[in-house]
Structure to design on (1120 residues):
């Protein structure tokens, strides 16, 4: 108890220092006065009395000092004194302090930001209950490299028959035009089984989720997202029970999900779901024969069941499924699963890992630079230390002050770094490309900041104090002499610095090579032919609700009228419609069997991406015709034979180079059967279905009027006969056409929503954004690394020249010309640079294959890139060395020698 | 040659301040120092500054308390008096001191 | 008892120890003091060596390096003539101190 009381008293005294000092002064002077009074009473004169009183009191200062020691926290006060002293020292060398602090700030801030992002995206568990137990189930065919989800009937089968899970939830994407809640808009939605929310373990914020009965009875109920609730219903707590119209059918809102809830966790900010509806499988879905594997299935592992056991169980269920599906007869259907988290993040992993690697390299380089800075500084202060030690300063005190200085640097650098990290993380959450998942969860993680600061702090302390320790161990007299005499000491330090600079240069080369590779990949991507001409093209999506457009005829009439009216607009060249457009990706794949094709044992599916088109689609997009003809009016007449246009890669893969014009094929896994035969009438160039750096897929085009016939029962299931993208080629700026287009659409049907309207240029550019970002970041890092290592070279060289001034002066006096001196200095710089380059090359050879997933059209060991990086580094190093070299060459030997 | 004066030890000083205040009630620093010298018959001469850190120490432990007042000569001075805790400590501290003194005496006794 | 209480008397203890035991190294001095006082008086080595240094500077003790029983090198101290005189002085001072304190304790 008592020690605490004393401590509290000491602490509070810190704050009242001035008052307490005055108090003590008053008390002591009154003490002296008493003594004087007494002395005078004994008969002394005033003068004598005072003298005697003062003498007998002893040292007033000592008393005060003893008092102070008792009163305050002497340790803390000593620290404060050291801090003030350290700040003064730093202010005397502003260039050094600024460089060190900035380097520290960049390193700490950068690392914290990157680590925070990586932690949020890759490492954090998903925001569901016990998310480690959630698995994503897939089916696949051993003979086929494509990844599937599961079929609609399989969702039900797994729910019924699997034993390894406590629950399974199925989901599939859907989109609805929403009216009745503010301005009409197109909502991204997900159809989910009633079991999904319980499997995820998430409770709604308001209301409830679906019951099994509602799911089975196709009840028109919906659960909406938090942002929809906030934006369209103003967070009204009475929203439950209200209705909104989805595709013109009224749905009752029965629940609102919590703020950060998101499912499925697709990449990108724009893929957030606005609402969820019950899965309510249609009879067609339930009876489909294993040809549509579009449904997602998430399952929660039963506690105590291992993943191995779960796999066995899945295999068992699959074994029961396989015989039911004729579509996969003769093939091996298999099931596998991944953790939901792994599935969400694995696409981001390569980029983020590389980012992590790059920022760690930068941090390393920054630390090397700081080490060098501090080494140089310590060396230049050897004289000062020598003097102080000779004058009797305790080694301990001097070291303590150095330590304080280093810690001050770290503290200031750390604070700025923290601010930087906050800014960077904020920027990251906003600007990171959409291809990264879980962007909403990015926030700064302070433990990471503490770790980064600790690391930097330790580096600062080691590099600040260690060389000082080393330099103080030398004889005090020694350090008082001119530095160049203490050659042994200087040389080992010099070598250490050289090694550090070589290390830096190697790391910089590594980053330069990486950035060069990415730059070339990006350039290659930009050069890639998308297969069509995206300029001057406007596209938008329309979805006709089945309710009001129940027959294909009604759909056709709508689009025909729309086409007619749009064609009359000024500036419109051609108008067409398609079930999907290039670049955006995600097109349904269908099994195709060419006539006469005999499938060999173990051969996989033949799958082609299908486009249903109307109007002059190929001419609108300028897709080149290679053989045969485009689709035209004769194909849309009633009773016309079924035809299709195929892409070049389709022809080569499935018709093996034969002329395919006139050959026939069928949808499905065999040619003999009830499906209608389709004749190939033309071959066109491939278009890029996904981003430009994605591989090409086989494509085929059919007139939309054929859709019902060709797809048979699947037409109803695909349900896309009414959902089309309108594609318009304009004479000039396509975006100017949008208002007119919307007006015409609303003339035809005021409730229709024109969604996803973009120019084709915008769409292409959007897919480039992720690669652009990767490249920009890595190039920025490489630039920083280059600058830092150049600073390193410059620093070491400048120091060496300063130290060797005497030696150089002697050489010059003995006849060496300025040019020779210049060249010698440059030679040293280049030696260091070359050694760094060699190190960097070795590192590149070992490490660039990690970049492979990010490269496009460029090999990891691309010789042009490597040569370029080496050249840049060597030239810059030579430039950095030029200034100190010139300074060496301009030494006046007479003056230098005289100033001994 | 004369009598040699001793420097007073810290803990012992605390005890003597307490004892003085116990019998004198409330005193200012100068008076406390004078009194101790007096009663000990000048064998304990304090470097008069020594008393002030001791007074502070005792204040921090809350064994004594201080307040400004007017002395008998009309001078402003800081007066000290015992707190309850301080009063209770006196006996224990006295015991302690006696024990140490006895031990020292044994130690310093002519060697066996 | 606060460790500072021994400051003035540390010199005394050391000098007396050396006068009784002749020549001893620092550690031995500490041990003896502890034992002879029935563990009541213990010296912190942190304060012993500065004190030894000071007393050596004052000329009261002298030192020399020698080997211990376990063949380790140690610095041995012993009293000088001036030290012997100082010991008497210190003992007298101590008696005065005790007398003075007792007076306060009795009569305050």
């Amino acid at each position: 108890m008592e020690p605490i009381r004393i401590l509290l008293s000491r602490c509070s005294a810190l704050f009242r220092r001035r008052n307490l000092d005055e108090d003590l002064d008053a008390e002591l002077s009154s003490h002296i006065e008493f003594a004087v009074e007494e002395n005078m009473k004994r008969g002394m004169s005033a003068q004598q009395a005072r003298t005697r009183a003062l003498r007998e009191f002893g040292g007033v200062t000592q008393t005060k000092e003893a008092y102070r020691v008792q009163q305050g926290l002497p340790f803390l006060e000593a620290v404060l004194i050291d801090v003030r002293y350290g700040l003064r020292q730093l202010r005397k060398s502003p260039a050094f302090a600024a460089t060190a602090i900035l380097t520290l700030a960049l390193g700490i801030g950068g690392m914290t930001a990157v680590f925070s992002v990586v932690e949020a995206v890759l490492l954090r568990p998903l925001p569901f209950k016990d998310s480690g137990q959630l698995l994503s189930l897939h089916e696949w065919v051993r003979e086929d490299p494509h990844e599937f989800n599961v079929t609609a009937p399989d969702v039900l089968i797994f729910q019924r028959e699997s034993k390894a899970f406590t629950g399974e939830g199925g989901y599939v994407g859907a989109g609805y035009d929403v009216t009745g809640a503010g301005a009409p808009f197109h909502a991204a939605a997900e159809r989910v089984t009633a079991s999904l929310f319980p499997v995820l373990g998430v409770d709604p914020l308001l209301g409830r989720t679906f019951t099994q009965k509602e799911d089975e009875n196709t009840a028109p109920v919906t659960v909406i997202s938090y942002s929809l609730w906030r934006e369209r219903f103003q967070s009204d707590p009475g929203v439950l029970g209200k209705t909104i119209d989805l595709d013109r059918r009224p749905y009752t809102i029965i629940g609102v999900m919590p703020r950060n809830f998101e499912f499925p966790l697709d990449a990108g900010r724009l893929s957030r779901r606005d609402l969820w509806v019950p899965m309510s499988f249609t009879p067609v879905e339930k009876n489909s024969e294993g040809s549509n594997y579009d449904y997602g299935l998430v399952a929660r592992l039963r506690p105590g069941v291992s993943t191995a056991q779960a796999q066995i169980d899945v295999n068992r269920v699959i074994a029961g499924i396989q015989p039911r599906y004729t579509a996969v007869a003769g093939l091996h259907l298999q099931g596998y699963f991944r953790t939901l988290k792994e599935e969400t993040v694995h696409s981001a992993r390569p980029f983020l890992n590389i980012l992590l690697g790059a920022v760690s390299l930068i941090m390393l380089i920054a630390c090397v630079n700081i080490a060098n800075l501090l080494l140089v500084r310590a060396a230049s202060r050897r004289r000062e230390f020598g003097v102080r030690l000779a004058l009797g300063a305790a080694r301990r005190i001097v070291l303590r002050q150095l330590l304080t200085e280093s810690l001050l640097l770290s503290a200031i650098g750390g604070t700025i770094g923290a601010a930087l990290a906050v800014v960077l993380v904020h920027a990251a959450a906003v600007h990171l490309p959409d291809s990264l998942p879980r962007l909403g969860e990015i926030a700064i993680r302070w433990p990471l900041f503490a770790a980064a600061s600790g690391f930097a702090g330790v580096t600062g302390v080691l590099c600040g104090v260690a060389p000082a320790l080393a330099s103080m161990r030398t004889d005090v007299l020694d350090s008082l002499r001119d530095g160049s005499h203490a050659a042994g000491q200087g040389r080992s330090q010099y070598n250490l610095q050289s090694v550090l600079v070589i290390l830096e240069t190697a790391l910089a080369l590594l980053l330069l090579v990486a950035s060069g590779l990415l730059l070339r990949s990006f350039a290659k991507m930009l050069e890639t032919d998308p297969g069509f001409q995206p300029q001057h093209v406007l596209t938008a999506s329309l979805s006709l609700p089945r309710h009001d457009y129940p027959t294909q005829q009604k759909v056709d009439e709508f689009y025909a009228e729309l086409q007619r009216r749009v064609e009359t607009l000024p500036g419109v060249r051609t108008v067409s419609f398609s079930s999907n457009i290039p670049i955006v990706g995600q097109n349904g794949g269908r099994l195709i069997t060419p006539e006469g094709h005999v499938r060999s044992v173990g051969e996989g599916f033949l799958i082609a991406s299908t486009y249903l088109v109307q109007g002059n689609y190929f001419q609108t997009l300028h897709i080149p015709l290679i053989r045969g003809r485009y689709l035209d009016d004769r194909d849309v007449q009633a009773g016309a034979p079924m035809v299709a246009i195929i892409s070049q890669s389709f022809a080569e893969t499935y018709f093996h180079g034969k002329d395919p014009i006139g050959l026939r094929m069928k949808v499905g896994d065999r040619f003999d059967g009830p499906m209608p035969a389709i004749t190939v009438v033309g071959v066109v160039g491939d278009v890029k279905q996904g981003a430009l750096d994605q591989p090409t897929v086989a494509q085929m085009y059919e007139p939309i009027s054929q859709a019902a016939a060709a797809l048979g029962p699947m037409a109803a299931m695909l349900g896309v006969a009414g959902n089309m993208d309108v594609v318009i080629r304009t004479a000039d700026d396509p975006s100017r056409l949008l208002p007119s287009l919307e007006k015409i659409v609303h003339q035809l049907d005021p409730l229709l929503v024109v969604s996803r309207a973009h120019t084709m240029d915008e769409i292409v550019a959007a897919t480039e954004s992720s690669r652009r970002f990767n490249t920009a970041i890595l190039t920025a890092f490489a630039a920083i690394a280059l600058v830092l290592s150049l600073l390193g070279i410059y620093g070491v060289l400048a120091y060496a020249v300063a130290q060797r001034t005497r030696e150089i002066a002697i050489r010059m006096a003995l006849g060496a010309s300025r040019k020779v001196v210049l060249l010698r200095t440059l030679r040293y710089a280049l030696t260091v640079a070359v050694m760094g380059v060699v190190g960097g090359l070795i590192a590149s050879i070992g490490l660039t294959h990690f970049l492979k997933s990010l490269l496009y059209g460029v090999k990891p060991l691309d010789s042009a890139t490597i040569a370029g990086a080496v050249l840049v580094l060597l030239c810059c190093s030579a430039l950095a060395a030029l200034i100190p070299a010139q300074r060496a060459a301009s030494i006046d030997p007479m003056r230098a020698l005289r100033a001994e | 040659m004369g009598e040699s004066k001793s420097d007073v030890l810290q803990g012992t000083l605390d005890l003597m301040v307490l004892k003085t205040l116990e019998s004198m009630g409330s005193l200012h620093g100068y008076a406390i120092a004078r009194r101790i010298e007096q009663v000990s018959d000048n064998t304990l001469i304090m470097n008069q500054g020594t008393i002030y850190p001791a007074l502070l120490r005792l204040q921090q432990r809350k064994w004594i308390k201080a307040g400004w007042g007017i002395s008998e000569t009309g001078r402003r001075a800081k007066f000290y008096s015992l707190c309850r805790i301080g009063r209770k400590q006196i006996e224990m501290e006295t015991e302690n001191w006696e024990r140490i003194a006895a031990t020292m005496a044994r130690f310093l006794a002519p060697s066996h | 008892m606060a460790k500072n209480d021994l400051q003035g008397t540390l010199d005394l203890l050391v000098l007396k120890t050396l006068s009784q035991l002749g020549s001893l190294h620092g550690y031995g001095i500490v041990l003896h003091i502890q034992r002879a006082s029935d563990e009541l008086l213990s010296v912190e080595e942190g304060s012993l060596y500065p004190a030894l240094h000071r007393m050596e500077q004052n000329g009261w003790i002298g030192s020399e390096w020698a080997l211990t029983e376990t063949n380790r090198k140690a610095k041995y101290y012993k009293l000088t003539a001036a030290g012997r005189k100082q010991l008497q002085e210190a003992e007298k001072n101590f008696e005065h101190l005790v007398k003075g304190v007792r007076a306060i304790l009795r009569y305050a």
In short: Residues 1-7 of chain C have pLDDT under 50 and may be disordered. The two ends of chain C are 21 Å apart (CA to CA). The longest strand of chain C covers residues 61-67.
